[in-house]
C-alpha cells in the first residue's frame, strides 16, 4: 500500500505553480507560528529573515527535485508535487517548539560552524534538527520504496544530507569569521542566499539541459548586453570583481529572456521549421529564480536590482501574449533599446545611486538609440517567418521582394556604421584621445561586413552578434582608459 501511494504521487500532473504556493505558504505561516511561540522573534530583521526563508525553501525545492529526477527512472511528472508536499515540513519546527518547549531555542539561522548532526544550540534548536533529519529520512524512504531499490534509497539519503549540509552548514561555515560576526551577520546571510540561489539555478538548468541547450547556444545574442554592463561599470570606475558580477546578472537575465523567446515564439518557430524546446515550466521556474535573485541583490544594492529588473520586465512585455509588444511596429526596437539601457545602467549603478559623477544624459541616450539600432539586423534571418506570422519588422513593413529586402538591409547596415562612428566621435570629443579609438574604428569593419559577406542570413546574424559583443567589450576598455 505504501508503494502504491508513492507511485500514485509520482503520477500526479505536474504544475509549476504548486511549488511557489508551497514556498510562500511555508515562508509566511512559519513566521506566523514562530511569532505565536515567541513574539520577540526577529524584530527589525523580519524583512531580511523573510528573504532568507524564500530563498532557502525555493532552493530546497529545486535541489530535491534534482535528487528525485536523478534517482527515480523515467522522470515521473509528479516529482514537483512530491517535493512541494515535502516543503510543508518547514512549518513543523515552531509547532514542535510550541508543543514541547524543551525542543525550542533562541534562533533559527544558518549554522556558521561545522556540525555534521545539524545541531548547534547557538543557531538552531532541536525542533529544527529533528525536522531536517526527518526530511532526509523521508527522502531516502520515498525513493527506496518508489524504486524498490535499497541502493537508490541510500543514495537519496546521502544526497539529501549533502544538499541540506551544503546550503545550511558548509557555505555558512566558510563565510563565517570572528570579524564577520563582530560586524553583524547580515552580509554573511546575504552571501549564503546568493550561494543557495546559484545552487538552485545550477541544478535546474543542468536537469533541463536538453531543453535549455538551444537557448544556451544563442547566448551570443546576450553578449552585447553583457558588454554594455561592462561599459557601464567602466564608466563608474568599478574594479574587475564589481564589473563581472554585474555583467553576470545581465547575462543570466538574458538567458531567462531567451527561454521566454523560445516558448512564446513557438508559432513563428514552426513557420521557420524550428522546434521550441522549452515549455511553460522552464519560463516560470527561470523567472522565479531571476526574481528571487533580484530581490536578494536589492538587499545590498537596490539601485542595481531596480535597473536589472527593467530587463526582466521588458522581456516579459515583449514576449507574453497579454502584451506581445513585438507585434507592434517599432515597439520591438524600442524594447531592445530599453533593454540595452537597463544593461548599461546595471553596470553603472552603485548600491543606492549611480556610481558615476559624470553626466549620464548623453551616454544613456546613445545607448538607448544604439540598442534599438543594433537590434534591427536580427530580423534579417527571419523575414519569411515574420511575414507569415504578421510580425511588422522593418523588413516586413518596407519590403516585398528579395531585392527590396536587400535594399532595406543595406540601409540598416549603413545606419549601424554611422552609429558606431558617431559613438566613437562623441567619446573622443567628450573624454579625449585613446589608442582604442582607431582600434575600434578598424574593428567596426568586420562587425558590419559579415552582414554583407556571409550568404546565409542566419549565419550572418549570429556572427554579427558575436562580433558586436566583442566590439562593445573593446568599447568598455576604451571607456576605462579615457573616462
Strands, count: 0
CA-based shape: globular
Q: What is the H/E order? A: HHHHHHHHHHHHHHHHHHHHHH
What is the radius of gyration? 26 Å
The protein's oligomeric status is single chain
* DSSP strand content: under 5%
Number of helices: 22
Structural class: mainly alpha
The low-confidence runs, each spanning 5 or more residues with pLDDT under 50, are: none
User: How does the major sheet shape up?
Assistant: none
Mean pLDDT: 88
The residue fraction in helices comes out at over 70%
In whole angstroms, how far apart are the ends? 71 Å
Description:
The protein has 483 residues and is an all-alpha fold. 74% of the residues lie in helices and 0% in strands. The protein has 22 helices and no strands. It has helices at residues 2-10, 16-37, 46-71, 79-87, 92-99, 126-147, 150-175, 178-182, 186-207, 209-217, 223-235, 240-264, 266-271, 280-298, 302-319, 331-348, 361-375, 383-389, 394-398, 402-431, 436-453, 457-482. The longest helix is centred in the C-terminal third of the chain and has 30 residues, at 402-431. The termini are far apart.
Q: What is the strand and helix layout of this fold?
A:
Blueprint: H1 2-10, H2 16-37, H3 46-71, H4 79-87, H5 92-99, H6 126-147, H7 150-175, H8 178-182, H9 186-207, H10 209-217, H11 223-235, H12 240-264, H13 266-271, H14 280-298, H15 302-319, H16 331-348, H17 361-375, H18 383-389, H19 394-398, H20 402-431, H21 436-453, H22 457-482
Helix pairs in contact: 2-3, 2-4, 2-5, 3-4, 3-7, 3-9, 3-14, 5-6, 6-7, 7-9, 9-14, 11-12, 11-16, 11-22, 12-14, 12-15, 14-15, 15-16, 16-17, 17-20, 20-21, 21-22
Amino acid at each position: 500500500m505504501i508503494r502504491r501511494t508513492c507511485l500514485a504521487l509520482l503520477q500526479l500532473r505536474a504544475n509549476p505553480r504548486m511549488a511557489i504556493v508551497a514556498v510562500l505558504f511555508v515562508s509566511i505561516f512559519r513566521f506566523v507560528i514562530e511569532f505565536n511561540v515567541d513574539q520577540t522573534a526577529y524584530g527589525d530583521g523580519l524583512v531580511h529573515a523573510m528573504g532568507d526563508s524564500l530563498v532557502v525553501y525555493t532552493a530546497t525545492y529545486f535541489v530535491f527535485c534534482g535528487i528525485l529526477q536523478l534517482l527515480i527512472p523515467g522522470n515521473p511528472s509528479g516529482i514537483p508535487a512530491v517535493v512541494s508536499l515535502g516543503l510543508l515540513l518547514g512549518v513543523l519546527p515552531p509547532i514542535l517548539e510550541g508543543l514541547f518547549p524543551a525542543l525550542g531555542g533562541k534562533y533559527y539561522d544558518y549554522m556558521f560552524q561545522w556540525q555534521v548532526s545539524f545541531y548547534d544550540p547557538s543557531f538552531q534548536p532541536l525542533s529544527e534538527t529533528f525536522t531536517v533529519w526527518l526530511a532526509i529520512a523521508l527522502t531516502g524512504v520515498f525513493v527506496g520504496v518508489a524504486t524498490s531499490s535499497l541502493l537508490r534509497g541510500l543514495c537519496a539519503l546521502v544526497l539529501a544530507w549533502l544538499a541540506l549540509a551544503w546550503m545550511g552548514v558548509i557555505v555558512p561555515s566558510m563565510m563565517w569569521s570572528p570579524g564577520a560576526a563582530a560586524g553583524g551577520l547580515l552580509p554573511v546571510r546575504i552571501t549564503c542566499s546568493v550561494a543557495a540561489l546559484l545552487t538552485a539555478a545550477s541544478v535546474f538548468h543542468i536537469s533541463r539541459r536538453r531543453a535549455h541547450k538551444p537557448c544556451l547556444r544563442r547566448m551570443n545574442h546576450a553578449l552585447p548586453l553583457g558588454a554594455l554592463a561592462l561599459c557601464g561599470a567602466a564608466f563608474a570606475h568599478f574594479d574587475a570583481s564589481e564589473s563581472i558580477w554585474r555583467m553576470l546578472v545581465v547575462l543570466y537575465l538574458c538567458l531567462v529572456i531567451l527561454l521566454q523567446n523560445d516558448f512564446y515564439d513557438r508559432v513563428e518557430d514552426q513557420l521557420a521549421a524550428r522546434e521550441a524546446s522549452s515549455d511553460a515550466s522552464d519560463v516560470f521556474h527561470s523567472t522565479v529564480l531571476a526574481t528571487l535573485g533580484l530581490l536578494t541583490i536589492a538587499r545590498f544594492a537596490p539601485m542595481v536590482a531596480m535597473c536589472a529588473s527593467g530587463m526582466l520586465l521588458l522581456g516579459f512585455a515583449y514576449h507574453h501574449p497579454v502584451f506581445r509588444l513585438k507585434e507592434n511596429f517599432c515597439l520591438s526596437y524600442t524594447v531592445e533599446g530599453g533593454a540595452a539601457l537597463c544593461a548599461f545602467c546595471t553596470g553603472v549603478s552603485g548600491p543606492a545611486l549611480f556610481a558615476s559623477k559624470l553626466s549620464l544624459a548623453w551616454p544613456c541616450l546613445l545607448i538607448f538609440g544604439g540598442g534599438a539600432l543594433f537590434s534591427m539586423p536580427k530580423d534579417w534571418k527571419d523575414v519569411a517567418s515574420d511575414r507569415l506570422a504578421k510580425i511588422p519588422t522593418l523588413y516586413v513593413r518596407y519590403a516585398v521582394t528579395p531585392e527590396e529586402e536587400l535594399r532595406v538591409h543595406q540601409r540598416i547596415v549603413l545606419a549601424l556604421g554611422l552609429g558606431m562612428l558617431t559613438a566613437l566621435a562623441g567619446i573622443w570629443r567628450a573624454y579625449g584621445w585613446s589608442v582604442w579609438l582607431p582600434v575600434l574604428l578598424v574593428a567596426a569593419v568586420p562587425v558590419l561586413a559579415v552582414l554583407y559577406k556571409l550568404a546565409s542570413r542566419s549565419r550572418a546574424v549570429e556572427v554579427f552578434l558575436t562580433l558586436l559583443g566583442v566590439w562593445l567589450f573593446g568599447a568598455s576598455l576604451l571607456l576605462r582608459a579615457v573616462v
